[in-house]
Amino acid sequence: MVEHHEHPLGAATLSAEVIAVRLSTLLATPGAPVYSVVNLRRADHAFDLLDDLMRDGAPLPFFWPVSEHTEGHDGVTELYDATSEALRRSGGIVPSFAALRTACARWKSLDLVLREGSPLPEPWQR
Questions:
Q1: Which residues are registered as beta bridge partners of 12?
Q2: How is the chain split among helix, strand and coil, in percent rounded to 5?
Q3: Total number of domains in the chain
Q4: CATH number at residue 11
Q5: Which helix (H) or strand (E) covers residue 42, if one does?
Q6: Host domain of residue 47
Q7: Three-state DSSP class for 12?
Q8: What is the reported pTM?
Q9: pLDDT for res 14
Q10: What percent of the chain clears pLDDT 70, i.e. is strictly above it?
């Protein structure tokens, strides 16, 4: 069963696993450079929703069999920070497209280590 949560502003949000998949899709298919500013904002919004859910202790996506141990989370926290930083960049078409490419690479790495059973990044520790 997929749990749904309420966003702090009252709008219903999707489960963490649905948002994680959506974020992966947004970053893997950034579209034409002309749409990069808007697509970067969409990906940033998806990451923010996922971040809020994870910080609030929402159920993890089933495809992240993360370790319960907190040791060794430094590398995964660095990937989390790098993803977040890339998504928060601003500017015109060229900087936004570059930020999308960077965020895609960082998110792929973060998602991969979580799928391999890494501990959660520090902000998402339970």
A1: 6
A2: 60, 5, 35
A3: 1
A4: 1.20.120
A5: helix 36-55
A6: 5-124
A7: strand
A8: 0.85
A9: 84
A10: 85
